[in-house]
Amino acid sequence: MKRKVASGIMLTVLLIGMLTLAFNILPSKPVMTSPNPDWLSTNITLTAHYNGPYYELNVASSPLTGVTFTLNGTPQTTSYTDWLLEGSYTLEMPQTHDEYVWFHWLEDGDTNRTKTFVLADNTTWTGVYRFIADLNGDGVINIVDIVLSALAFDSRPGDHNWNPIADLNQDGIINIIDLVKVAIHFGETFARALFEDGFENDFTPWTGTVGTPEIPILKHDYFLDGYDTEAEIDVYGVIGNELFFAQNWLTSNTGWILKADLTTLEKTVLYTGNKLAMWEGAIDGSVCWAAGEDKDSGGIWRSAIGRATTSGASVAKHPNTGDCNEFIGFMDDGTQLVAGERKPGGLTEGSSYPNGCGLWTIPKSTWSDTGTWSRVYEDTDLYEWGSIAKFGSTYYALLAPYNNGKWKVMKSASLTTWTVDLDYRGQTLTYDYGGQLIHLGNKLAVISPVQSDSKWHLFVLSTEGGSWTDYSINIALASESAYASAYYDSTIGRIILLIGRDTTKDHTIYSIKTDGTDLRTERTNLQGTNGAFTPRMYEYCYKDGAVYYPICFYTSSTSYIGKISRTAHHGSRSMVVDLDATEYAYKTLASSYSNLFVRFYVQVTNLPAPGAERYQDFIVLRDSGGTARLYAGYWLLGSSYRWYLNVDGSGDVIYEETINPNQWYCIEVEFDANADVHYLWRDGVQIITVNQATANTIQRVDVGSCGGSGNWAADGCFDCVVVADTYIQPEGQQ
User: Fold this and answer.
1) Higher-confidence position of 123 and 101
2) Residue whose C-alpha is closest to residue 398's, from 436, 440, 455
3) What percentage of the chain carries pLDDT values higher than 90?
4) Domains with residue ranges and CATH for the chain
5) What is the pLDDT of residues 439-468, one digit of tens each?
6) d(C-alpha 281, C-alpha 539), whole Å
């Protein structure tokens, strides 16, 4: 008998009062991961924002996306996110989607698909869809469904025996086609999930936690060490499977351009520069462009442009420039490169432009011929070109002197004439604060300091040539120099924001909505008190899906490239635990079960080297008294890596396999006291069988770092947990 797992469409409307100052008071309903279940799951979450009055509406569906609904008569499609004013709204769900049919609202049994709600109430609504062949919606297709179909056979609307739920193809007649549809699925059991959670907001669905597990959007790893010590590293991007970056500042090996294989992490030097830096870069297909400065053959520092490929790199240096003309701001403008100079300072030896603060255009086709370079503008305030971007057909640039908190945003249609668009030149701050321009999909934004409230602000430009909207971010300006760098992740609709502090080295990663709300602290004190750390998350640093290589880090002995990635397997968040601590979430079920399935996704950030024994229980199933009856996890013994399963004293039954760090694995276990056979699946493949007689039952599920030994020096990420009374299978598998 074929069996599938599912949960209801969970149309959950969380209406949180305007005076609530916290965010995400109630969690989103768990994400269902089985394909074609009896119950389709969709989440609708409204979260109050106290400075509005606005409410955030998120509509997501799983396992299927693209579910069309209407909000106040306007068609929308999952996944959907918007901010709404306080008031009355009407939500209408579709009658059908694929092989799902509208059933009813769970709370009141109402079969009307339209629900009107007011954004001021504290209400939850759950809409339920049933599988089309399960006519009575009881989770099993059996003789009852056959009888219901037979009783309505050969009927049409208006006939005494007409039953619309039996008209499976909705052609206005119940005939052999509809009956066969039910018969095809006869015997299928659609067991409802007993518990699910995708860790989208907090631990509310769980009974409790042990230790201090987290549910962040992001995690941070020290990914790749530099070629030399005490060097600042700036990441350019990726070509194929190779990460391109520069090693700058401090050591003798500065201004070097390198690449690293993302699989083996083997580094290759492409260009050995002879001065401080090649600061910024951009990837253009198979070419990596870089901008900064380098010494010429006479030892004079010149403005420089580099071109690198997987086979090598070369650099052109302008003969009429000096250290005072070092390129800082940089962008790829299609057929040409645009590079902006540093603030006043540096050596002017050999320079025809001793003020600095100029803007250059460099044709790509003749980049090595410096005679084709043009210095098209010099800023009248003598501010440094920190960040350059193009929005529509208009150029925008963030400029600052970087010593007193002053800054401005300029705009230009031609690069030769510029006007001030955002003006904060009147500020006088004690410390140096650096901001950045970023693209927010179809909008442009700048993150910069504002003196009036001593906080970082997000300014958003929705239309080219329009006005900027100012959002104060609840991040105070530190009493030390600090720098903001950011990326926009369109998948989760959030800005990933890094604030690097110069003296305390208290560097923090945040995520925030594009209107400055729902600020979340994702990672703190990335460096600590050792050495120094400089964020580099400029417009053209590498981003691939959910992975970022945005920052450099150096101590007195080693320099590193950092890697920031989303933790989630499905959605935007997951539970993250320290594998060297006892940190897990647990759920006590309403009843005890002699046969139970639990599926979850797990990845580890680091795999210990062969040697001393290390193991970690990723899941523990307990009886009603709290005694552990099943353990499963990962084990290193000597040079052997293995998954293991232990049931009620059976001893560890193992499957040898070396896993990859930072790769998601789908793990499912079955405890079966009826058949006395227990299983572990990895990515849908049954790899362990344990024959163990037991009369015990399961009522509690622990997931996370549930117990172990040894020094892992790693985090574990857990997501998409489903507990059911039948086999669940990986997401996306039939």
Assistant:
1) 101
2) 436
3) 40
4) 3-138 (no CATH), 142-184 (1.10.1330.10), 208-216+573-724 (2.60.120.200), 217-359+547-566 (no CATH), 379-535 (2.120.10.10)
5) 887 899 999 999 999 999 999 999 999 999
6) 9
The three-class DSSP label of residue 638 is strand
* Residue 448 backbone dihedrals phi, psi, to 5 degrees: -150, 165
Q: Which residue is associated with the tokens 């079920």? A: 589
Contact in structure between 384 and 399 (CB atoms under 8 Å): yes
Strands 301-309 and 312-317: antiparallel
Q: Letter for the amino acid at 149? A: S
End-to-end CA distance of the chain: 15
Query: Is the Cβ–Cβ distance between 177 and 184 less than 8 Å?
Result: no
Point out the least confidently predicted range of 217-226, 257-266, 295-304, 550-559: 550-559
pLDDT band with cut points at 50, 70 and 90 for residue 8: very low
Question: In angstroms, rounded to a whole number, what is the distance separating the alpha carbons of residues 222 and 714?
Answer: 11
Under a CB-based contact definition with an 8 Å cutoff, are residues 321 and 353 in contact? yes
Q: List the beta bridge partners of residue 447.
A: 436, 458
C-alpha distances in Å from residue 102, one per residue of 9, 168, 698: 9, 12, 34
| pLDDT per position as a tens digit, 513-565 | 898 888 988 877 666 444 444 444 333 344 455 566 666 665 555 667 777 77
Assign 112 to helix, strand or coil. coil
Q: How far apart are CA 262 and CA 538, in angstroms?
A: 21
Q: Picking from 109-123, 129-143, 512-526, 579-593, which range would have the lowest pLDDT averaged per residue?
A: 109-123
The predicted model gives 583-593 an average pLDDT of 94
What is 406-466 written as a DSSP string?
Answer: -EEEEEESSSSS-EEEEEETT---SS-EE-EEEEETTEEEEEEEETTTTEEEEEEE-STT-
The two three-digit tokens of residue 378, written as one number: 């010099």
Phi first, then psi: give them for residue 663, nearest 5 degrees: -120, 135
- 395 burial level (CB within 10 Å; 0-12, 13-18, 19+): buried
Per-residue pLDDT, averaged over 173-188, amounts to 85
Residue 555's pLDDT is 56
Cβ atoms 602, 662 nearer than 8 A = no
**189, 516, 543, 548, 719 from 565: Cα distances, Å:** 39, 21, 10, 6, 15
Length of the chain: 734
At 67-78, the pLDDT tens digits run 788 889 988 887
Round to whole Å and give the CA distance between 416 and 338.
Answer: 12
Report CA torsion sign: 103, 106, 109, 110: negative
State how far the Cα of 683 lies from the Cα of 603, in Å rounded to an integer: 12
**pTM for the structure as a whole:** 0.69
3 state SS for 322-367: CHHHCEEEEEECCCEEEEEECCCCCCCCCCCCCCCCEEEEEEHHHC
CA-to-CA separations, 698 to 102, 589, 616, 630, 694, in angstroms, rounded: 34, 9, 21, 9, 11
Question: What's the DSSP call for residue 625?
Answer: T
Confidence check: pLDDT of 46 > 50: no
The residue type found at 284 is D
Q: CA-to-CA distance for 644 and 41, rounded, in angstroms? A: 33
For residues 599 and 669, give the distance between their C-alpha atoms in angstroms, rounded to a whole number: 7
Which burial class, exposed, middle or buried, applies to 557 when counting CB atoms under 10 A from its CB (0-12, 13-18, 19+)? exposed
For all residues of the chain together, what is the average pLDDT? 81
No. of helices (H) and no. of strands (E), the chain: 2, 58
